[in-house]
């Protein structure tokens, strides 16, 4: 984190992770290949959550609404308005930006538990609205995007997002951009202020920082990243469903981030990966897999309270961003 | 000469308690002003009003000829009013370096200083003698060093008015001596408003002294005048407090 300490190591690590994920595209069996593409998109969601929760210390229980804003922004755009894939993705980002700006302006008047409750209420409003406007949104059935709606024409090249490799690569590009963006943000002067707000908001204010404006900027960046993940999810996997706006999808990114390590750049990926595979493996053996997930989480909180990477950083790898 | 900072009829009530009560105050550029008074006299509340941590019930604050009464605290800091907390308020989990980097990058962003964050941080840490502790988490520093870190953070803001709220509280005698030297040095660049209970420190440093009692200014003058002021002796100096 310290300016003057070599940033090269941190960037090298992140590029190496991206390179590894790139290589995995060619060697993973089909099943895991598909799973990892999904995990990369959800890890992007988690990275957006982590920026606000991990670095600014704002615990939102409503981030499903930002994911859903992107999901529906892109999905409805394609389905009802015939938007092309890139335009639909832009629509997802715009929806995320507008929603997070409005929510930020309202919810940041509160802090602590009140902030959790307010964000949760707003997310609930969006979830109910999605069900209420069923003719438009497909209600709890959701919408399925057709194959021909998910083809990108870039000049002469055609990118079919239903093709597994194309899907994986697009997911990887999104993930990589957001990962490097997060790294750049948390190492920047702005990132330093965000961490200061988390550590001692009053002191930060008395050092000349407009803490409200900084928190608002963080909410919007976080919201746009989550909406990008949502938009990508709709376009890559062709399904837009109301369950993604439910409380469950507000809690999940929190768990992924806690598991991987809050306020670590790579924690969201590690957390999402672990959680996804724990659920995937245990649900193959027993219907009580949620119990096992719960136990795993309790053990983690007991022995790795800072998450996997957080503990790693504390004990061994101090320079981990 | 125009005062750097004045207050007119400044008041702050907490319920029925008049913590600061109709205070008219003027501070000349370049002076070292000490504010003394018994516990609960309203000293911290008064300087908190000046730097914008709390809002006044009534009255007005002028800084550098501009009315800043309604200016939010962070904007006052950018005008050059820096405050160090009475109760040490540092970023305990961040390194000393990061603690000072925050004010340094503030002045860089505002264009009030030039250069690299790194150079600014090391300069401020060197001035208070903490350069060799740069990478230590602030919460693990010795208490006296934490107080010095507070001062370094204030210094790094390149203040025109630096408010120090009981900076020597909890320092050892040897540390206090160094501290007096440091304050003298700072005073060559900034106007200082120091709340202080330690009378020898006050007498040695202050150009003028303002005595607070029950939210009001009881007396004001040179150290000699204050020392011989009967009312002050009754209210404060003779009160066995110091
Ligand atoms: N936020 C607050 N709410 C209610 N009362 C307060 C508040 N802050 C200060 N007071 C009261 O206002 C009065 C003045 O307090 P203040 O902290 O300004 O005194 P002080 O002169 O700084 O004292 P000390 O020398 O102990 O630091 C005290 O009676 C205090 O209890
Ligand atoms: Mg006080």
Strand-helix topology:
The complex is a heterodimer of chains A (321) and B (242).
Chain A: H1 8-27, H2 30-55, H3 64-81, H4 85-107, H5 113-132, H6 134-137, E1 143-144, E2 151-154, E3 157-160, H7 164-187, H8 189-199, H9 201-205, H10 211-237, E4 239-240, H11 248-260, H12 267-285, H13 289-303, H14 307-315
Antiparallel strand pairs in A: 1-4, 2-3
Chain B: E1 5-14, E2 17-27, E3 32-36, H1 43-51, E4 58-63, E5 66-67, H2 73-79, E6 81-84, H3 96-109, H4 117-128, H5 143-156, E7 161-165, H6 173-187, E8 191-195, H7 199-205, E9 208-213, E10 216-221, H8 223-227, H9 230-237
Parallel strand pairs in B: 3-8, 3-9, 6-7, 7-8
Antiparallel strand pairs in B: 1-2, 1-4, 4-5, 9-10
Helix pairs in contact in B: 3-4, 3-5, 4-5
The complex binds adenosine-5'-triphosphate and magnesium ion.
The site of magnesium ion (MG) has 3 residues of chain B, from helix 1.
Protein architecture, described:
The complex is a heterodimer of chains A (321) and B (242). Chain A has 321 residues and is mainly alpha-helical. Chain A has 14 helices and 4 strands. In chain A, the strands form 2 sheets. Chain A has a two-stranded antiparallel sheet. Chain A has a two-stranded antiparallel ribbon with strand order 2-3. In chain A, helix 12 (267-285) runs antiparallel to helix 13. Chain A is globular. The termini of chain A are close together. The model of chain A has no long low-confidence stretch (mean pLDDT 92). With 242 residues, chain B is α/β, with parallel strands linked by helices. Chain B has 2 domains: 1-80 and 160-242, P-loop containing nucleotide triphosphate hydrolases (Rossmann fold); 88-158, no CATH class. Chain B has helices at residues 43-51, 73-79, 96-109, 117-128, 143-156, 173-187, 199-205, 223-227, 230-237, and strands spanning 5-14, 17-27, 32-36, 58-63, 66-67, 81-84, 161-165, 191-195, 208-213, 216-221. Chain B has a 6-stranded mixed β-sheet with strand order 6-7-8-3-9-10, with helices on both faces. Chain B has a 4-stranded antiparallel β-sheet with strand order 2-1-4-5, with helices on one face. In chain B, helix 6 links the parallel strand 7 (161-165) and strand 8 (191-195). The longest helix of chain B is centred in the C-terminal third of the chain and has 15 residues, at 173-187. Chain B starts with a strand and ends in a 5-residue tail after the last helix. The A-B interface holds A 1-4, 189, 192-193, 195-196, 199-200, 202-211 and B 51, 53, 72-75, 77-78, 83, 85, 89-95, 97-98, 101-103, 105-106, 109-110, 117-118, 135, 153, 157. Bound molecules: adenosine-5'-triphosphate and magnesium ion. The site of adenosine-5'-triphosphate has 12 residues of chain B, from strand 2 and helix 1.
């Amino acid at each position: 984190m310290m300016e003057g300490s070599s940033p090269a190591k941190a960037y090298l690590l992140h590029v190496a992770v991206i390179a590894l994920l790139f290589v995995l595209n060619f060697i993973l069996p089909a099943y895991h290949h598909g799973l990892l593409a999904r995990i990369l998109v959800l890890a992007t969601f988690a990275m957006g959550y982590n920026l606000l929760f991990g670095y600014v210390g704002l615990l939102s229980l409503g981030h499903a609404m930002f994911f859903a804003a992107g999901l529906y922004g892109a999905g409805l755009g394609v389905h009802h308005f015939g938007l092309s894939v890139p335009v639909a993705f832009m629509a997802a980002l715009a929806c995320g930006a507008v929603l997070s700006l409005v929510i930020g302006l309202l919810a940041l008047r509160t802090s602590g538990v009140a902030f959790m409750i307010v964000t949760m209420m707003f997310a609930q409003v969006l979830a109910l609205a999605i069900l209420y406007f069923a003719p438009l949104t497909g209600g709890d059935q959701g919408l399925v995007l057709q194959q021909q709606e998910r083809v990108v024409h870039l000049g002469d090249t055609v990118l079919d997002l239903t093709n597994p490799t194309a899907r994986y690569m697009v997911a990887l590009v999104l993930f990589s951009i957001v990962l490097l963006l997060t790294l750049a943000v948390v190492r920047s002067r702005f990132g330093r202020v965000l961490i200061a707000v988390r550590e001692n908001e009053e002191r930060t204010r008395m050092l000349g920082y407009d803490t409200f404006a900084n928190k608002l900027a963080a909410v919007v960046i976080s919201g746009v990243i989550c909406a990008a993940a949502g938009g990508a999810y709709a376009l890559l996997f062709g399904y837009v469903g109301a369950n993604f706006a439910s409380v469950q999808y507000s809690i999940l990114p929190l768990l992924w981030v806690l598991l991987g390590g809050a306020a670590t750049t790579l924690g969201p990926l590690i957390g999402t990966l672990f959680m996804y595979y724990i659920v995937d493996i245990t649900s193959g053996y027993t219907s009580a897999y949620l119990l096992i997930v719960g136990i795993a989480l309790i053990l983690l909180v007991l022995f790795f309270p800072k998450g996997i990477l957080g503990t790693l950083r504390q004990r061994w790898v101090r320079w981990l961003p | 000469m125009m005062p750097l900072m004045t207050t007119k009829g400044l008041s702050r009530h907490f319920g029925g308690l008049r913590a600061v009560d109709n205070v008219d105050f003027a501070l000349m550029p370049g002076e070292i002003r000490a504010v003394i008074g018994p516990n609960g006299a309203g000293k911290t509340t008064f300087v908190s009003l000046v730097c914008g941590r709390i809002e006044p019930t009534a009255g007005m604050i002028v800084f550098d000829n501009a009315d800043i009464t309604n200016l939010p605290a962070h904007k006052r800091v950018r005008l050059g009013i820096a405050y160090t907390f009475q109760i040490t308020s540092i970023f305990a989990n961040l390194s000393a370096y990061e603690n000072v980097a925050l004010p340094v990058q503030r002045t860089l962003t505002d264009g009030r200083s030039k250069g690299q964050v790194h150079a600014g941080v090391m300069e401020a840490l060197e001035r208070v003698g903490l350069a060799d502790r740069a990478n230590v988490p602030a919460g693990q520093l010795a208490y006296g060093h934490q107080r010095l870190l507070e001062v370094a953070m204030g210094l790094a803001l390149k203040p025109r008015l630096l408010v120090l709220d009981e900076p020597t509280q909890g320092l050892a005698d040897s540390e206090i001596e160094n501290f007096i030297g440091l304050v003298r040095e700072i005073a060559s660049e900034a106007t200082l408003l120091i709340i202080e209970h330690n009378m020898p420190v006050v007498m040695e440093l202050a150009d003028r002294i303002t005595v607070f009692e029950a939210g009001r200014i009881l007396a004001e003058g040179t150290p000699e005048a204050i020392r011989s002021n009967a009312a002050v002796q009754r209210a404060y100096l003779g009160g066995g407090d110091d």
